[in-house]
Amino acid sequence: MGITDKLKSMLGKKEDPKKNKKKLSAKELADKNKEPYITVLSMEIDPDNPSDGAFELDWNDIFVARLMKAGYQGKTDNDIVDNWFQSVCRNVVMENYEQEQADPEVRQAQTNRRDLGNGRSEIS
User: What is the pTM for the complete model shown?
Assistant: First the structure.
């Protein structure tokens, strides 16, 4: 027993159990609370082609179970999460496309007009 411990013992002070308690990570906390967990650990981008890249994801078993319950399939947990992630990416692309198509200025720029004369136009 060190001097500090002896003094604490003599003064009747006890160690604070919160000090020695290990802080749980977000994933450990989700597991403890039986909640789904997913996070992006890293993202890599090809410097020569910024359109190419990869995400490294981390998840817990509860997240995979929820995906399976929602109808996602795969041979492995990785396949199931990959199918979900592809679906999320597809939805983002489609939402952006739909918003773009709803913008009158974008539609106008995509429309080709040719004046036929007599107040008539050809639109393609």
Answer: 0.64
